[in-house]
What does this fold into?
Amino acid sequence: MDKKYINELKEWAKDIVIAIIVAVIILQFIKPTFVKETSMLPTLQEYNFLFLNKQSYFFGEPERGDIIVFHTDLKTQNGDEKMLIKRVIGLPGEVIHIEDGKVMINGEVLEEPYIMEPYTSGYVDNMKIPDDSMFVMGDNRQNSIDSRDASVGLVKIKDVYGKAVFRLYPFNKIGLLN
It folds into this structure.
């Protein structure tokens, strides 16, 4: 074999190994995902392609308004664990009350310009959120299984898979998520 050809192969091999190492490191912090349901309308539509920050709450605290993906005890049709995407509404230590279509945090009505309809169904009676948990809801309140439902309940911070930080698709809505 020609020495030039061998050097070229070595360079290609080195580039491929570096690319694989970089990809593995990136995937420890970032996870691509698709939105599969409509519970986050109008903020997120079905088939939006998002990037999640998997280390968000390792380095920082959750904030109201964060959009998160989390593990649940719910199952998909084929029996796999169902992960949900919702917005953080109530934070650790806060008291949440939902009545007459209004969401109140610590006695104050929560302003929610992101929700699909200006009415939140359900009733929650002055629930104090434990220090390790959050209260989450979809933006499409009439079509969302979330913390108002006993099958989901409060979300433990340790069960958060990632915080949605960037939308890649559809291309006309590409950008950071607030």
The chain is about 15% helix and 35% strand. The mean pLDDT is 93. The domain at 31-176 is CATH 2.10.109.10 (Umud Fragment, subunit A).
